[in-house]
Specification:
Blueprint: H1 2-11, H2 14-46, E1 57-60, E2 68-70, H3 72-96, E3 105-107, E4 114-116
Antiparallel strand pairs: 1-2, 3-4
Helix pairs in contact: 2-3
Length: 129
């Protein structure tokens, strides 16, 4: 049973998925640092010295442990990190996933429908081609 499970992991996409999850976790950490430590400080400076991570709407005042607040600045940072991660994943997938070339087709002279090259009748109008 163990050897069958090992064969499953090695022959299917489970191994690729596991590698993708590990790399994705590492990429998420790097992008979070990129957003919080490199992108947002200049953006905050341009917008008048705002520290986005500290932006919040206080619902109930109190000390640091008892304050209830909506921390929308942290949410903005998370959205920007998501956009950067999505862009990087899109670029990586574009470079690895290539669309197959379109299959050759024979066009029906009557209805102009594309048919397989070896077809003798049109699949749309059933005329001989």
């Amino acid at each position: 049973m163990l050897s069958e499970f090992r064969a499953f992991l090695l022959k299917t996409n489970a191994l690729a998925l596991a590698i993708g999850v590990i790399i994705g976790g590492a990429l998420g950490t790097v992008v979070t640092s990129l957003v919080n430590d490199i992108i947002m400080p200049p953006v905050g400076l341009v917008l008048g010295g705002i520290d986005f991570a500290a932006q919040k709407w206080v619902l109930k005042a109190g000390d640091a442990e008892t304050e209830i607040a909506i921390r929308y600045g942290t949410f903005i940072n998370a959205i920007i990190a998501f956009i950067v991660i999505a862009f990087v994943v899109w670029q990586i997938s574009k470079s690895f996933i290539k669309e197959p070339p379109p299959a050759e087709a024979k066009t029906c002279p009557f209805c102009k429908e594309a048919n397989a090259v070896d077809a003798t009748k049109c699949r749309a109008c059933a005329s001989a081609i």
